[in-house]
Amino acid sequence: MTPPIFIFGSPRSGTTLVREILNQHSRVHIVPETGFYDRLWAARRGLGKVTSRDSWVRWLYYILFQSHDPGMMENRDTMPALIQEFTDRPPRGPDDFFIRIVSYLGEIRGKSIFGEKTPKHLLYWRRIFAGFPQARAIVTVRDPRAVVASMVTRGDLADSAWKAAVEWSLFADVAKTLLKRQDLQVKLVPYEDLVQNSLTVIQGLCDFLGLDFQDGMEAVDGANSSYGQPSEAGIFANSLGRWQEVLSRNEVAVTERIVGAHLAECGYKPTTGEHKNKLNARELAYYYRMQAEITMGYLGLRPNRAYLRHLQSRVLPWR
Fold first, then answer.
1. 219 Cβ contact partners less than 8 Å away, ≥ 6 residues apart
2. What's the rounded Cα separation, in Å, for the pair 139 and 10?
3. What is the DSSP string of 162-179?
4. With 50 as the cut, is the pLDDT of residue 231 above it?
5. How confident is the model at residue 311 (pLDDT cuts 50, 70, 90)?
6. Which option is the CATH number for 5-143+171-236+300-313: 3.30.1330.40, 3.20.20.100, 3.30.70.20, 3.40.50.300?
7. Angle 216-30-241 from CA coordinates, rounded to 5°
8. Is the separation of the CB atoms in 45 and 308 below 8 Å?
9. What is the pTM of this model?
10. Distance (Å, rounded) from C-alpha 190 to C-alpha 135?
């Protein structure tokens, strides 16, 4: 089987746009956000082993019916076929379960190269590459001030600029570690380059993935965000400076103080001079809390308890 493609990055950094672009290729199908490793694998001690029928039915139900990505929920009608697939040949483990779902959703569309896009899977890159050592990963990065503005505007991703900035900083730290690995196939894609020099960046992506560039790949039909509306479809650069209108001067200053040196490292210019990463006690506590959640996830101890109670008590029609 062809090694899978993963698209990682901080939330609101262009992962959906990359997915939509690659899906224009006649051979590629990148599945929308499943949250498989970030939500299911990380909560496996609560959900149960995927080799058990009761457990993999729950896992599959979560992927197809409980995703917050509308694109993933469009695959709900495949549930009976996947139930039959895993009934006939039970999954050998989480990686086998994951790749068979992803490949099936591509095959029914006549595609031979498969992949998946969940931004937060970046936090589990070690686990993913352990299961798929030949996988190819695309890591998106975007101006942290634009990411903060987008997350705060949505409201459900972050309730304050400082929390969004701390989260971006954590993703930047993890991405920096991943990109240093010379033994893995990883490509960094700055969002700003993607929307301003689309053809050049797309051709570079095709070279990295071993694909032939096809005319029209930049003609994206879908929305450039997993939360977007049809009116927002396509590649456009008019959002690059929108953060300056959305964020207050204080929010910009807080963001730049928190992300600090990452600004220059990622090629972004601070508005208030040179900065170093300076987090206060509250911000550090939040950063370490997110790091602890990753550790709990690797141990399989990071469930959403209320959701797990709901799933474990629910009588599913496919059981």
1. 24, 234
2. 9
3. HHHHHHHHHHHHHHHHHH
4. no
5. low
6. 3.40.50.300
7. 65
8. no
9. 0.90
10. 20
